[in-house]
Design a protein that fits this description.
By secondary structure, this protein is of the alpha+beta class. The chain folds into 2 domains: 108 residues, Phosphorylase Kinase, domain 1; 294 residues, no CATH class. Helix content is 44%, strand content 14%. The chain has 11 helices and 11 strands. Strands 1-2-3-5-4 form a 5-stranded antiparallel sheet, covered by helices on one side. The chain has a two-stranded antiparallel sheet with strand order 6-9. About 10% of the residues have low confidence. One of its GO terms (molecular function) is kinase activity. InterPro entries: Aminoglycoside_PTrfase (IPR002575), Kinase-like_dom_sf (IPR011009). It comes from Aporhodopirellula rubra.
């Protein structure tokens, strides 16, 4: 999308930061598979005098609110003084600004975090180390020097400012206190209600795999209609979406009433706690399995966490939101050497909380909320992807195989709820 010369122009804002105080280094710029948010990521390898340093150049569409980016950057920069797992955006040569605007995008540069994500069937002690890393980041985000007034949440890019307590929540909860409930409760109560109508509408759409696969090739920017490989991956995704749609229409109204009731109960139980303790703090809010990188496996010692990245969703919420997101990305079964799925009483949430509690406190109420959120996240995300791609014809800057991998995991997760 961007030429090499164009990216060099962007990098000139940080040229000293990438290692060239007096002469230009040899720069190798490699595009990296982007996330689901629409941003662009490039790895920049700067070699000077046989020494190579790597950086991550990130570009967000100009529609991303600049004020929000600035607030998140300030918080991450401050937090990085207390936690070396974070990779804060760097200031420019002649300006303290950590971002610039060019080619219709906002750009930031940060150090490149080496490492690999854990597999979905990772060991419990590895999952726990991820939980500990989340705890360390939470501590750094909320040190006294880094704490701001929390009555104003950062406005999400996709949402207009609205009262945090939804009108969909029972009047008893909405009127019980002027304190605000964690977004992980209010947002999901709202979204499950919205998805109920959306899932019901799926019956009115054509579920032909051939027709859907052709549409997907035009909805996903990484795919090309008529390319044999793209056609194959889009067909696989179409088959998974049809399977997801059938499951949702069959089980949505069976499962979601219980989940809504549990979310409501957590909201009710929170009311007496407002006077005793703060239920919200600064958290990442989108810490998936691929966002915490570990060193490669080694026989002689445990794998250590190398870093945590992707801070786009940083906001005020319950720590349970991050714990649930991380734990929910791991399967509760593992594959044996014979290739059989073997249940080993694995509870990724318990492993995550054990690691988190080595650093931060985590109450029973937060544990119960996280347990509910794992189930809500699974069925809600499956509902999101299915309605986005089938009913709403949304476009995404990712490949069909990446979305299909996510959907397959979600289907397996929701099937365990039944």
């Amino acid at each position: 999308m961007f030429s090499h010369d164009g990216l060099l122009t962007v990098l000139s804002h940080w040229m000293t930061s990438v290692g060239a105080p007096s002469q230009e280094p040899d720069l190798r710029i490699t595009p990296v598979q982007p996330g689901f948010s629409g941003g662009r990521v490039y790895r920049v390898d700067a070699t000077r005098e046989e020494e190579t340093t790597s950086w991550a150049l990130k570009g967000w569409p100009s529609s991303t609110p600049r004020e929000r980016m600035a607030k998140i950057s300030q918080r991450i920069v401050a937090a990085s003084q207390h936690c070396d797992l974070l990779a804060p955006p760097l200031p420019g040569i002649k300006s303290s600004r950590t971002s610039i605007e060019a080619f219709g995008h906002h750009w930031e540069l940060a150090r490149w975090i080496t490492g690999i994500p854990l597999p979905a069937d990772a060991l419990d002690d590895e999952i726990a180390r991820g939980g500990e890393a989340i705890g360390r980041v939470h501590l750094a985000l909320n040190t006294d020097a880094n704490r701001e007034h929390q009555r104003k949440l950062i406005e999400s890019p996709s949402m207009q400012e609205a009262p945090l307590v939804s009108t969909l929540i029972s009047p008893n909860v909405a009127n019980a206190s002027s304190s605000r409930l964690p977004r992980c409760l209010t947002d999901r109560l709202n979204r499950l209600h919205q998805l109920t109508a959306a899932v019901a509408s799926l019956a009115g759409y054509d579920h032909s795999v051939d027709i859907l696969a052709t549409r997907l090739a035009t909805q996903l920017t990484d795919e090309t209609l008529g390319d044999p490989t793209s056609d194959f991956h889009c067909r696989q995704l179409a088959e998974s979406l049809v399977e997801a749609s059938i499951w949702l229409r069959r089980y949505w109204n069976v499962i979601t009433p219980g989940l809504l009731e549990r979310l409501q109960r957590h909201a009710n139980d929170a009311q007496p706690m407002f006077a005793e303790r703060r239920l919200t703090t600064w958290v990442l809010r989108d810490v998936h399995r691929e966002h915490i990188l570990f060193e490669p496996p080694k026989r002689d010692r445990p794998r250590s966490v190398q870093g945590v990245f992707d801070y786009d969703a940083v906001d005020v919420d319950s720590p349970a939101a991050d714990v649930a997101r991380w734990a929910g990305d791991f399967s509760s079964t593992v594959n044996s050497a014979l290739g059989l799925s073997v249940h080993q009483n694995r509870v990724p949430l318990e492993a995550t909380v054990a690691g988190y509690r080595d650093v931060c406190s985590f109450s029973k109420w937060e544990f119960d909320v996280a347990k509910t959120l794992i189930e809500v996240n699974s069925i809600g995300s499956l509902g999101n992807w299915t309605t986005w791609l089938i009913a709403e014809n949304r476009h995404f800057p990712v490949s069909a195989s990446r979305i299909r991998s996510r959907i397959i995991h979600l289907i397996a997760s929701v099937c365990r709820i039944c």
